[in-house]
Amino acid sequence: MKKLAFLILLLPVALAFGQQKPTMTMKPEMTEIWEPEIPVVSPGAAYGDLPGDAISLFNGKNLDEEWTNRNGEKPGWKVENDAVTVVKGTGEIRTKRKFNSFQLHIEWRSPAEVSGESQGRGNSGVFLQGIYEVQVLDNYNNRTYRNGQAGSLYKQYPPLVNVCRKPGEWQTYDIIYNAPVFKADGSYLVPPHVTVLQNGVLVQNNVALRGPTEYIGIPEYTVKPHGAESIVLQDHGNPVSFRNIWIREIL
Ligand code: MG
Questions:
Q1: Which phi and psi angles does 146 have, rounded to 5°?
Q2: Domain interval for residue 217
Q3: What pTM, to 2 d.p., does this model score?
Q4: Residue in 247, 250, 197, 234 with CA at minimum distance from that of residue 86
Q5: Quick check: is 89 in a domain?
Q6: Separation of CA 121 and ligand 1 centre (Å)
Q7: Omega into 225 within 30° of 0, i.e. cis?
Q8: pLDDT tens digit sequence for 171-204
């Protein structure tokens, strides 16, 4: 009886050996895929430069082409020296174009002259599809709650590291955003996923959002279905600047 049990135990092992892949009949070219050919894209000359297939969202001269304020009117932010700066009280600015999944490059600068502390210092934000905020904040020697500092998905995911440059220096965000898929009841079938590099350093590694990023309350209860939406930049009352904004849609 013991012998039989031993043989039964060995049976899966024997079967596994019997199912070995028929590698002897395979040739290398049988696993090569040639068509369709990968699209050719010209890279930017240097890191952060616009690649050949990207859409520029800011021409450095004015906001007329690509941006409006919350009410669909001309934005009140100030444009000079290839940068656009928040003008306190004029409200957010939104892209006229709407996007689903994308790769976004955006450069930002908190004011060289430091004023305020915690969330009151160089605060703005990049809202993905209008409701998911990647926090912009001057966290160079400036403590705040960890899930609200620069590079956080506001109040959902703290950044992996604090890689902030000094106030007044330009910084980069490279954001890879995969839009959600909704169930019929309006909840997520697949939540939005976000990866963020700040100054070339990974600060968010493919995190799954739980809902819109909320100032107050738990995001799970506020999900509403949406389609393609604008990129929104926040007026939090601090004169934060932005430049070199471009996007590549992920189709
Ligand atoms: Mg903010």
A1: -65, -30
A2: 56-249
A3: 0.89
A4: 234
A5: yes
A6: 10
A7: no
A8: 999 999 999 999 998 899 999 999 999 999 999 9
Task: Encode pLDDT of 115-144 as tens digits.
Answer: 999 999 999 999 999 999 999 999 999 999
Least confident of 12-16, 36-40, 50-54, 142-146: 12-16
Whichever domain contains 143, its CATH number is 2.60.120.560
Q: Is residue 86 part of a domain?
A: yes
Which pLDDT score, from 0 to 100, does residue 21 have? Answer: 58
Residue 236 CA, ligand 1 centroid: distance in Å: 6
CA of 190 to the centre of ligand 1 (A): 25
User: CB burial class (10 A; 0-12, 13-18, 19+) of residue 58?
Assistant: buried
Report CA(212)–ligand 1 centroid distance (Å). 13
Decide if 19 is inside a domain: no
Q: Report pLDDT for 218.
A: 86
Q: How many structural domains comprise the chain?
A: 1
46-54: average pLDDT:
96
Tell whether 171 is covered by a domain. Answer: yes
| CA 13 to centroid of ligand 1, rounded, Å | 58
Cα 64 to ligand 1 centroid, rounded to whole Å: 24
CA of 182 to the centre of ligand 1 (A): 26
CA of 158 to the centre of ligand 1 (A): 13
Sheet holding 124-128, edge to edge: 67-69, 93-95, 232-233, 124-128, 132-136
Query: 127 CA to middle of ligand 1, Å?
Result: 9
